[in-house]
Structures are given as structure tokens and as C-alpha cells.
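Supplementary Note 3. Input sequence used for the single-chain structure prediction.
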Amino acid sequence: MSESLNLVLILGAAFIGVASPGPGTLAIAGASMRTGRRRGLALASGMTTGSFILGTLAALGLGALLAANQVFLEVFRYVGSGYLLFLALRSLRSMLSSETSDLSGSTLNSLRSAYFTGLGIHLTNPKAILFFSALYAIGIPADVTATELAVVVISVTLQTMFILHSYALLLSKPSVIKIYIGARKWFEGIFAFTFGLAGLRILLSKLN
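The predicted structure, written as C-alpha cells, is reproduced below.
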């Protein structure tokens, strides 16, 4: 492997970016506590797929190309912020509802919805595009081989899968779900606030 290829730096920065609290980890928490382990794992799988796609694009240089074209990033900004605001509205409606949360709704049909929700959260986040572009630009030298590039993308993807799926498994434990049921409105309020804040920050932020 090339001496100038800093895989440790890439994995370390990616770990912090994935493991730190944000809209994605919060979505996994909500899905896992509301509807159980299968839905949480499906959403985590969608986010992992999104991470693989963005990592591959960044490795091929398309992430930097998108970052240089403000038109594309503006489109991602509006779509991504709109999607997060939609999730905020959904959590707000759940908070205001007097109905108890249906934790038995983890059906096969809902798994597909959970997967694409996770995929959508990741792919419509312009900050994720810029993050992967910067990460690969710093850690990957110009003379990297195709094999080394594949090792980086796969390593980051496997690490992301481990982190996100661990969140889903941890937050779907019966003890955690019991806490969620007892304080459902508080949790939904936190979800609504965080999704809304993230959506507004992306909508109002400057990407350049």
C-alpha cells in the first residue's frame, strides 16, 4: 500500500463523522425504539448503502466535481433540507397525537420504507458529499492505485455498517423501548426539534 495513503486518518475521521449525533443516528434511534430492531437495522442498512455510494463517488472524483458545481449542490441542499423538515413534521404530529406508539408495526412492508428512508437521509445531505470529498482529498494521494482505492471505500463502508447497526441493536433493546414508551412525547419532541434544526441549517447555510 502506498506510504502516503493515510488509511488510519481516513477511518478515524469517518468514525467521528458517522458515530457523532446527527440526523442519521437520530433517525436510527427513532426507528429502533418506535418499531423495533428489524426496522432500525433496515434504516441503518439504507444509510450504509448511501455511505458506500457517496464514498465511491468521492473516490472517483465526482464528489469534488459536484462540490465545484454550485447548481447541483443547491439542488441537494433544497431536497435534503425539505426531507429533514418532513421528518420533523412527522415527529411533531406523533408528539401531538394522543395515540400510543404502535411498536408491533415492524412488518416486511415497512422494512423497505425504512431502508429507503435511511438511503434518502444520506444521499440528500450535501454536507455528506462535501465531507467525503474533503476526507478523500486529504487522505488519498494522487498516485493511489485502483486496488488501494477499493480498500479505502470498502473499509469505510464496513466501519459505517458496524457503527450504524450497533446503534440499531442497542436502541432496540426492550429496556430502551420501555423507556421510549414511557416518555414518547418527549422523544418525539426531541426528534422533531433536531430534524427541524438540521433541515433549517442546511437550507440556510452556505456550502462554499
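The radius of gyration is 18 Å. The chain has one domain: 7-204.
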